[in-house]
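batch job 7 of whatever, protein = tRNA-specific 2-thiouridylase MnmA
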Amino acid sequence: MSDHMLPPANGRRLRVLAAMSGGVDSAVAAARAVEAGHDVVGVHLALSAKPATLREGARGCCTIEDSRDARRAADVIGIPFYVWDMAERFREDVMDDFVAEYKAGRTPNPCLRCNEKIKFAALLDKALGLGFDAVCTGHYARIVEHPDGSRELHRSVDMGKDQSYVLGVLDSDQLAHAMFPLGGDTKGDVRLEAERRDLAVAKKPDSHDICFIADGDTQGFLAKHLGTERGDIVDASGTKLGEHDGAYAYTIGQRKGLRIGHPAADGKPRYVLDISPVNNTVTVGPVEALDVDRLVGIRPRWCGPAPAGVVDCTAQVRAHGEETAAVAEVVDGQVRVRLAEPIRGIARGQAVVLYAGTRVIGSATIDATA
């Protein structure tokens, strides 16, 4: 088994489409693909119908400035560069999905959806249609290739930057055409390399938060799309404690901003335990009620063959969360996971990603917890 980076095991020169966001990671990834001898074309995805001119610090991405940074990097690397308009597809598959999930009382991860629906579906499909062999991105993850040509998705060596969680939605066919040149390096190494390559983005800050909510005001974004709908804040017994202007503004595990009129009998803080869109209520209670040791995932995506029987693994439920020992089993198309230790504050709509060591087994959307 070999750690698949660049070039492919058979040494064939590939036609590679490098997705260039305008950041340092994708620029260095594209440069490495060229250095490995591949025929590389850079493309920047225009994901907003009305992109801002400038990024707000490290918030957001996909601005006009980012497009220009990507073009300048492509010029330095010496590859052709194009901007592809995918704003409508992004709105339908990522933004509309994001709003619909919150409306349904769930907490989605738009980065997973973007990787699944945009970068490794819409973009990859277009790339293959144009005769490209692979899509190259600056994600921190590794692809390991076996002698028989089968591939596995693994964690990055830089655990602080590891992005295998948001790539856990990729299936075998998508992994067969994916290229992640940065998985064997640290972020510091990549920035130093960018400086050596005279890439102006070497010191550009990483983007954070949700790219289409550049100001970081998720509640304001949702209010604009969903409006206000007054409802009750209740305890586990159904006793009304306060009111809210929209259940979508709350997340499981939230403590601050609950607008509760009087303290709990024991004087301890209360947390959001449940969000019900059916009766527009938010249920709050003690922190220990947030502990979850069982969950059910729907719409599984496997980075290889689906697991058979009961599988010992580790589970990760947040992009930057820790992994927990678990056992998982696929039953009637659902993934049932039992955690060795409780995890606090898991919300429906989040993804659970399963690992065998550093290998990603697959992922599922959390539909129920206990």
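notes: Residues 1-9 have pLDDT under 50 and may be disordered.
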